[in-house]
């Protein structure tokens, strides 16, 4: 009998992608539809952005629960994203202030950058700990990729701060939905040279 904790179930990549990106896409679509509307709830006026933030929180909780149910585990990134969405999104809804949810990507990418940076200072790749099974690389490759991703996360945090502070909510929502996702995708595409140079062939030992 298979132990779900030691042998998590394999999930169709498209299903996983849909569960992870679905709430973001639905938030974007809902915001575009409700952005010019005001809703009165319990005697208070809420913008369409705040209402969609509340719905987004519920969607993230639901999809994360489904992912856990289907796979038997959650990554540190998924857990940290869930916590920050609940905390920062909850503050935005509770205080009726959109700034908190806009700061969520900044805090998330800063946290990732700091964690990777701490590992680098210790001469370790914390990225390897979470991606080794899906991306087998030699130790030197892990260190190069970790340094670059660490800098990239700090760059994303800075970019989010610039966008939400200096541009409109419409611009930030588009940036959050498409810009950040595209940036992460393009980053890993741009690292194809490192991935191929330091890849470990199946059955081959790692170089020290």
TrEMBL record:
It is found in: Cell inner membrane. It is a multi-pass membrane protein. The chain crosses the membrane at residues 17-34, 46-71, 77-95, 107-127, 139-159, 171-189. HAMAP family: YciB. Belongs to the YciB family. Plays a role in cell envelope biogenesis, maintenance of cell envelope integrity and membrane homeostasis. This is Inner membrane-spanning protein YciB. It comes from Cypionkella aquatica. The gene is yciB.
């Amino acid at each position: 009998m298979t132990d779900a904790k030691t042998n998590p179930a394999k999930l169709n990549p498209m299903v996983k992608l849909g569960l992870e990106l679905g709430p973001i896409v639905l938030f974007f679509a809902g915001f575009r539809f409700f952005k010019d509307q005001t809703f009165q709830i319990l005697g208070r006026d809420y913008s369409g952005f705040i209402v969609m933030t509340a719905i987004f929180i519920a969607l993230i909780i639901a999809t994360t629960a489904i992912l856990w149910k289907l796979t038997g585990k959650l990554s540190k990134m998924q857990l940290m994203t869930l916590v920050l969405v609940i905390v920062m999104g909850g503050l935005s809804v509770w205080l009726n202030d959109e700034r908190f949810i806009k700061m969520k990507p900044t805090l998330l990418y800063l946290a990732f950058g700091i964690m990777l940076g701490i590992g680098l200072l210790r001469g370790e790749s914390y990225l390897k700990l979470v991606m080794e099974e899906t991306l087998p690389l030699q130790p030197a490759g892990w260190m190069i990729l970790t340094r670059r991703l660490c800098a990239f996360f700090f760059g994303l945090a800075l970019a989010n701060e610039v966008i939400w502070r200096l541009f409109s909510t419409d611009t930030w929502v588009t940036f959050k939905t498409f810009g950040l996702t595209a940036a992460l995708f393009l980053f890993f595409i741009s690292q194809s040279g490192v991935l191929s140079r330091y890849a470990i062939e199946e059955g081959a030992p790692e170089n020290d």
